[in-house]
Amino acid sequence: MSISESPAPVTQGSPSQPGDTSATRRRPALSPSRAGDFKQCPLLYRFRAVDRLPEAPSRAQVKGTVVHAALETLFGLPAAERVPQKAVDLVLPSWERILAEAPDLIDLVPEDQRDTFLDEARSLVTAYYELEDPTRFEAESCEQRVETELADGVLLRGFVDRIDVAPTGEVRVVDYKTGRAPREMSESKALFQMKFYALVLLRTRGIVPAQLRLLYLASGTVLTYAPDEDELLRFERTLSAIWKAILAAGVTGDFRPKPSRLCDWCDHKSLCPSFGGTPPPYPGWPEGPAEDAPGFEEIVE
User: Fold this and answer.
1) Who contacts 48 (Cβ-Cβ below 8 Å, separation ≥6)?
2) How far is 3 from 239, CA to CA, in rounded Å?
3) Which distant-in-sequence residues (6+ apart) come within 8 Å of 219 by Cβ?
4) CA 153, 240, 148: angle at the middle one, nearest 5?
5) Which of 190, 161, 111, 153 is nearest to 27 (CA)?
6) pLDDT digits over 50-102, tens only?
7) Cα–Cα distance, 210 to 136 (Å, whole number)
């Protein structure tokens, strides 16, 4: 899945409000996005995973979702049909399908801006062909939900853009990025996401992916990484430590803000004590089944 172009992801649907006991409050699972939230700002994690406060989508995120949907549909076609023009032709129906599921998104793309928006998405789909030729291989799965529970009870869950398996058995994890290739700090964040997926595959399939591959469509660049098992085991301990810290905060409700330059993009800045705001009353740690539906950012990251 992709890290979205905007630092503030989007929650789909109508989450129950803090303190609402009329609906089951699902226990959060740990995803790359939620782990990243806690590392960035524990209070942001609380707002998204515990309070489940709604956030408005950005135009960039919606465009990313359209591109992901078009590429997913592309790989459902026979290899010989996966030519550039066919991929471009899939952009409009992908947008129409997304809009049918979430009609409010039309506010982000008014009618007089639709052609420009779709042309931007088509340009990204066209740029994909500079990085790969989808007529030359088969994908095992696209937009694949992956999940595992670690030995210490940490439930990991995410959605992978594409998983390829070579005839000789090697596994490649592929993620589409609709933004430009990142600088060093952002590159580390991107690799965090891919190591997360690699660890889940190690635990579910018993194999280390041969390659983690990130395709940056806007800049036409590729970032590849070959993990090893020892590295993934160390990463597993890192995730367990993050989850332990989350659970400790969950018991007391002490999710402290961690101000940074990213605060300027936060949908919940007005509720943050660091900026004179007051968070809603802490609803307590959710004890129901683990959250099942992906957030918007899990689809486009």
Assistant:
1) 9, 11, 34, 37, 55, 295
2) 18
3) 180, 181
4) 50
5) 153
6) 999 999 889 999 999 999 999 999 999 999 999 999 999 999 999 999 999 99
7) 19
Locus of tokens 């439930």: 155
DSSP labels, the chain: ----SSSS----S-PPPTT--SS--PBPPB-HHHHHHHHH-HHHHIIIIIS----PPPHHHHHHHHHHHHHHHHTTS-GGG--HHHHHHTHHHHHHHHHHH-GGGGGTS-GGGHHHHHHHHHHHHHHHTTT--TTS---SEEEEEEEEE-TTSPEEEEEEEEEEE-TTS-EEEEEEESSPPP-HHHHHHHHHHHHHHHHHHHHHHS---SEEEEEETTTTEEEEE---HHHHHHHHHHHHHHHHHHHHHHHHT-------GGGGG-TTGGG-GGGT--PPPP-----SSBP-SPPHHHHH-
By DSSP bridging, strand 171-177 and strand 155-165 are antiparallel
State pTM to two decimals: 0.84
Task: Tokens for 135, please give them.
Answer: 């007529």
Instruction: Give the pair of three-digit tokens for residue 105.
Output: 């998104």
Q: What amino acid occupies position 117?
A: F
CA 288 to chain centre: 23
Tokens of 177: 């990025």
